[in-house]
Design a protein that fits this description.
By secondary structure, the protein is of the alpha+beta class. Among the domains are: about 90 residues, no CATH class; about 55 residues, no CATH class. Helix content is about 35%, strand content about 15%. The chain has five helices and five strands; from the N terminus they run H-E-E-E-H-H-E-E-H-H. It has a three-stranded antiparallel β-sheet. It is globular and about 75 Å long.
Length: about 220
């Protein structure tokens, strides 16, 4: 046994096989009858389908396990449709207009790419039935519309960045055009005094050495 909400979610998915999947040809064969099912193909072909009150499985294959060469929709689905039409004609109560929906199921429209709630910007959407614990709670993040505020902020950031780049370029140009003032000698330094024309440098007097001779006679 499985939880009723889990069973309903599986039925909801298998109903899409009839509406737009590999078994969509069966939908036109029944009026006001809810159908869900699944095709299968390997070396053989099969289809298992059901209404709210009747389940039927059809298998078509070869006894020697040779390749059938037909899909489940081609080999098994037509036989399933024929049987179900005859059965419902005899006992209409075996059909049913809809599958019973248990409590705890929420029907939402989602974006098939992101799995989030579909918004007006989503190129496509799909209505699904999920249990409350699995229901998406956020809007689609893959197709969010761009707002004017985001555009203006982006433009202002670009302007600030451009102004900063221009200022850096201007400062680099000024540094390249000016001499290196950090290494230039100052007027107070000895090197500046030596390199300054017209500023005589007085020679420093050398110390005088005096010798005193004492006669011991």
């Amino acid at each position: 046994m499985i939880d009723s909400t889990t069973a309903y979610m599986i039925t909801d998915m298998l109903s899409d096989v009839i509406k737009r999947g590999t078994a969509r040809r069966a939908q036109a064969s029944f009026s006001k009858v809810a159908i869900a099912g699944k095709t299968g193909t390997s070396r053989d072909g099969w289809f298992v389908g059901y209404t709210p009150n009747l389940v039927c499985a059809v298998w078509v294959g070869l006894d020697d396990n040779e390749q059938l060469g037909m899909t489940g929709a081609e080999a098994a689905l037509p036989a399933w449709v024929d049987f179900m039409q005859d059965a419902l004609a005899i006992r209409p109560s075996l059909g049913g207009a809809s599958f019973p929906k248990p409590g705890g199921i929420l029907t939402v429209r989602v974006d098939p790419e992101s799995g989030a709630l579909a918004g007006p910007e989503c190129p496509s959407s799909q209505v699904v039935s999920v249990a409350y614990r699995f229901a998406p709670a956020v809007a689609c993040y893959m197709h969010m519309p761009s707002t004017d505020s985001e555009i203006s902020i982006s433009d202002s950031e670009m302007d600030v960045s451009s102004d900063a780049n221009a200022l850096n370029t201007e400062m680099e140009s000024e540094e390249m055009s000016q001499p290196d003032q950090m290494n230039a000698p100052t007027p107070e330094s000895p090197a500046a005094a030596e390199d300054t024309p017209g500023d005589p440098v007085e020679p420093q007097s050398k110390p005088t050495r005096r010798t005193t001779r004492i006669d011991s006679r």
